[in-house]
Specification:
This protein is of the alpha/beta class. The protein is built from eight helices and seven strands.
Length: 188
């Protein structure tokens, strides 16, 4: 079965070497410039002393937040601080309360694949009929489909695919719609 491109939940599936963060950041900036209220969190990293420093940008405010926890020089595990992630998620939730046209979530990562992280924001947005796009690594796509119960459109990590999905959901795209009910709409 294929999924309708008008589904309001989109997985931007990326491969190693793709840069979903830059793609989502530029997309959010362009949406905001067009007057669309984009709310969410987009990750970025930089290298300081050879170690990645996880940070993210709140797309609705432009504020940068740290997601990094220092585990020591010898640590090799994930340096994502789950508490910082949830705090940033709380700020996204507050911004959603002020109104949102779209929610952008930085990753379906380890936390989310284990049922934690920012999954609650996805459920909350969809319950409020707010479209959501999330970057999903190809290696976690099966876990994503289980979470989404198959009710997601799969987008390649390309700007044109993201724009095409959004134009089908935006008010302009909906006005041109033939009245077709999407799979996602039928199960809401």
């Amino acid at each position: 079965m294929t999924f309708d491109s008008q589904c309001d939940l989109a997985a931007l599936v990326y491969e190693p070497g793709d840069d979903p963060d830059e793609l989502l950041r530029a997309f959010a900036d362009d949406l905001k410039a067009r007057g669309t209220r984009a709310v969410g969190l987009v990750q970025f990293g930089d290298r300081l002393h050879g170690a990645p420093r996880l940070s993210a940008t709140l797309v609705h405010s432009g504020e940068q937040v740290s997601l990094y926890q220092d585990l020591g020089a010898e640590a090799t595990g994930c340096r994502l601080d789950p508490g910082q992630l949830l705090a940033a998620g709380g700020r996204v939730g507050s911004a959603m309360d002020e109104g949102a046209d779209i929610v952008i979530i930085n990753r379906f990562g380890q936390q989310e694949s284990e049922g934690r992280g920012l999954l609650h924001l996805i459920v909350r947005a969809l319950s409020a009929d707010i479209p959501v796009v999330i970057a999903v690594p190809s290696k976690r796509f099966d876990a994503w489909i289980r979470f989404a119960d198959g009710m997601s459109v799969r987008l390649p990590c390309e700007r044109r695919a993201l724009e095409a999905w959004w134009s089908n959901l935006s008010p302009r795209g909906k006005a041109a719609s033939s009245g077709h009910t999407t799979i996602c709409e039928a199960y809401k």
